[in-house]
From TrEMBL:
Organism: Sediminicola luteus
Membrane topology of this protein: Multi-pass membrane protein
InterPro entries documented for this protein: Memb_transporter_dom, YccS_N
Keyword entries, A-Z: Cell membrane, Membrane, Transmembrane, Transmembrane helix
Transmembrane feature ranges: 22-55, 67-84, 90-110, 117-134, 140-160, 400-417, 452-483, 489-508, 520-538
Subcellular location: Cell membrane
Xref: Pfam families: FUSC-like, FUSC_2
Family according to the record: Belongs to the YccS/YhfK family.
Limits of the Integral membrane bound transporter domain: 411-532
Protein name: FUSC family membrane protein
Domain Integral membrane protein YccS N-terminal: 76-322
């Protein structure tokens, strides 16, 4: 336990998050100390505020995007600071300014993740403008110094990036390696943990969503830079690791198993244990590699992987010795397919090992710049985006209205009650409130717990000592850790933020306990208002929006299905023509899973038709897995010519998806494809497989017990194509039926 804790601590100290915390602390301390020595501490405080306000823009991304977002943040924080300070001339004017600024700044979140960070900086500037008295040197000088602080922070971030240019990439890759390892381990447990499958499947969905988000962040970070500066200035090893990690996830999804069939075939499960252990070994290997990437240690031995593969190979022979052919054929095919999949994963894990160990030519990659651009999800920044969100139907607009009213009520309430620092209530609101009720409630809980922990620790320290030097040191440490932990653990970050604030006030106010009381009270009021506002003011419950995610998923599944058909007909189609629909389908399922997870966080009374929605989400996940399995086999094996019966199944499945999409979109008219009779198509596909089985049985009777590679691939193809197409047809029919029921419930 202690060893794990020490390892976690060491990895945290090596992380880019801690590095970023140090950057913020250094950037804040230098102007404070310098101007204090010069006798102008007030100027240093304004510059430090500029640093603090614009720090959120320093998130992983390309050099250009980080600079642009920081400059926009600086401009916005200066403007907001100017408006609020001039509005202090009269209380009514100030309240009006708070409402206007809160609403329009919140709308900037319509421009995606970076837009939301810039909006947060603007709202934070509004709060700090309420807190700071600048009468001694004037509004304009303060605003200019805020801008100087932002520019100073930008220069400092350049210096830190020059000192460690690949810190963000390595941190993201390390996290993705670890999550991928966890994903493989959970999939291994699914083989044998019958009673825990529902819980494990929930973990799988959560990990898939996290991995897709990490992949998107890495695509922007790595591929955008490559597109801009070309091959010469680009670390191709990191891109190769990213591509391999994406392949591992997609290959895993392509080999989702029918666990009911496995349970029937392998009752006591002892034949499955080596395959489970192989997955656990691969997952552990990736997790160790994630640690090595950050700590720059030597790559571990591959012997454990090879031993696990050998045990899985022996398990197939042991199975056939217990259940000889032909009775054991179906089980043997499933185990061979499983081993084939795991061996492909082993090769991908080993390719990452080779890249990290600098073996041979492992760092060569042939991804063209124009192809790399296709894999980056871009954000549009036109004025039209903002105008589109000026509607009560927009979740962003609803959130802006909720936040605006909550800020106004919170500030008024704090002022009327005579609370010493009513701006703390406003600060709590802008930090906690999110468009989703569930996330707001969760953050409010974490904030309150963190504040109480931080306050309790601060009280104990203040009781023990009144030494101002100790307070100064602890304030610096708390600031660094708060900013370092805000992504990993919001509760811990809240605790350290509370410690920082209390120690700073303890340096200037001898009555520190009063500060603790006000801090807890203001946090409780702000958290309560945040939850109430999200519940009562134009709430955006997830059931109101989830059908849009379902429609997008059905549409992307349909595009992926047709790409697989084209691939089967002609292996000459470019990799991009196949991989782009696949990528978009995986992004769509990640968005759908995330929406469903948010739905589970809503109040029980707002989880409309939860069981039916879960069924539709599960069907879409299963459908995508079956598609990926079909596509992966066709892409990686030499296959026979597709028949009209294959095309009949594709057309029938396509038509089911078209009709499902039409149920979700009243304006859509289904475009149905013609095809031969489905019963005939099914019989012909099964006849092809049965003929191969008969031929193989005759070989066994003739004494040919070792199957040749050509026959093995033909059997695999016939078995997989017929089974997957029948399964996809059934899934598409179930999806259409459940979607029709879903729309009937909500329209009726």
């Amino acid at each position: 336990m202690l060893k794990d804790y020490l390892k976690w601590t060491w990895l945290f100290l090596k992380s880019s998050n801690f590095y970023r915390g140090i950057l913020l602390t250094v950037a804040v301390l230098i102007p404070l100390i310098s101007f204090d020595i010069a006798g102008h501490l007030a100027y240093g405080i304004s510059i430090a505020m500029g640093v603090f306000l614009n720090a959120p823009s320093n998130t992983p991304g390309t050099f250009k995007r980080k600079n642009i977002s920081t400059l926009l943040s600086i401009g916005l924080t200066m403007l907001v600071t100017l408006i609020i300070n001039y509005s202090k001339v009269h209380f009514i004017v100030l309240i009006a300014a708070l409402l206007v600024v809160s609403f329009f700044v919140s709308l900037i979140a319509a421009y995606g993740f970076r837009g939301s960070l810039i909006a947060f900086a603007g709202l934070l500037a509004m709060t700090l403008a309420l807190a700071r008295d600048i009468s001694e040197f004037g509004i304009w000088l303060h605003v200019v110094l805020i801008g100087v602080g932002g520019l100073w922070f930008l220069v400092m971030s350049w210096a830190f990036q020059w000192l460690s240019p690949k810190k963000d990439e390595d941190q993201l890759l390390s996290e993705t390696l670890y999550l991928t390892g966890s994903y493989l381990q959970v999939r291994g447990k699914l083989l044998t943990k019958r009673t825990k499958r529902e819980k494990l499947l929930g973990e799988i969905l959560h990990l898939q969503t996290q991995l897709t988000e990490k992949h998107e962040a890495l695509r922007e970070l790595l591929l955008s830079e490559r597109k801009k500066i070309g091959r010469s200035g680009f670390d191709e090893k990191r891109v190769l690791i990213l591509i391999t990690l994406v392949d591992i996830l997609e290959l895993a999804l392509a080999n989702t198993l029918n666990y009911n069939q496995i349970d029937d075939l392998f009752g006591d499960q002892h034949h499955l244990l080596p395959f489970r252990n192989l997955n656990l070994t691969m997952g552990n290997h990736l997790q160790v590699l994630s640690e090595i990437l950050v700590r720059n240690k030597k790559v571990q031995s591959k012997d454990e992987l090879l031993e696990a593969v050998e045990k899985a190979q022996n398990a197939i022979r042991d199975y056939l010795s217990e259940v000889p052919l032909p009775e054991g054929r179906e089980g043997a095919i499933i185990l061979r397919n499983l081993l084939d999949y795991q061996e492909q994963q082993i090769e991908k894990v080993r390719s990452i090992r080779r890249v990290m160990a600098n073996v041979g030519k492992a760092n060569k990659i042939a991804l063209k710049k124009k192809d790399a651009h296709q894999f980056i999800t871009t954000q549009e920044y036109s004025l039209n985006i903002l105008l589109q969100n000026l509607s009560i139907n927009s979740p962003i607009c609803r959130h802006a209205l909720r936040l605006t009213i909550a800020v106004g009520v919170g500030f008024l309430l704090g002022t009327l009650l005579g609370i010493r620092n009513p701006y703390w209530i406003v600060l709590t609101l802008i930090v906690l409130m999110r468009p989703s009720y569930g996330l707001t409630k969760s953050r409010a809980k974490e904030r309150i717990i963190g504040t109480l922990i931080g306050a309790a620790v601060a009280v104990l320290i203040i009781l023990v000592t009144n030494n101002t030097i100790v307070y100064q040191i602890l304030a610096v440490i708390s600031l660094t850790l708060a900013f370092s932990l805000i992504v990993q653990s919001y509760r811990s970050a809240a605790a350290f933020i509370t410690l920082f604030i209390i120690f700073v006030y303890a340096l200037i106010n001898p009555n520190s306990f009063q500060v603790v009381q006000y801090r807890i009270l203001d946090t409780a009021i702000g958290a309560g208002l945040a939850v109430i506002a999200n519940y009562t003011l134009w709430p955006t419950w997830e059931f109101m929006n989830i059908d849009g995610f379902i429609k997008a998923m059905v549409k992307k599944n349909k595009a992926y299905l047709l790409a697989i058909q084209r691939l089967y007909h002609s292996k000459e189609i470019t990799a991009l023509e196949y991989k782009m629909p696949r990528k978009e389908a995986f992004l769509a399922i990640s968005n759908l899973n995330a929406a469903f997870q948010r739905m589970t966080q809503d109040p029980k009374s707002k989880q409309k038709e939860m069981g039916l929605t879960y069924e539709i989400v599960t069907l879409n996940n299963t459908f995508l897995s079956a598609l990926a399995s079909l596509g992966s086999f066709i892409q990686n094996h030499k296959t026979t010519e597709p028949s009209i019966h294959f095309d009949a199944f594709i057309a029938n499945i396509h038509n089911n998806l078209e009709e499902t999409e039409a149920l979700l979109d009243k304006e859509k008219k289904p475009e149905l494809l013609d095809h031969v009779d489905m019963e005939t198509a099914k019989k012909e596909l099964q006849h092809t497989y049965n003929a191969l089985v008969k031929e193989r049985n005759e070989q066994v009777l003739a004494g040919v017990t070792v199957i040749d590679q050509e026959m093995k691939v033909l059997l695999q193809e016939a078995h997989l194509i017929s089974n997957q197409l029948i399964w996809l047809k059934s899934l598409s029919e179930d999806l259409k039926k459940n979607t029709a029921k879903y729309k009937t419930v909500f329209n009726g």
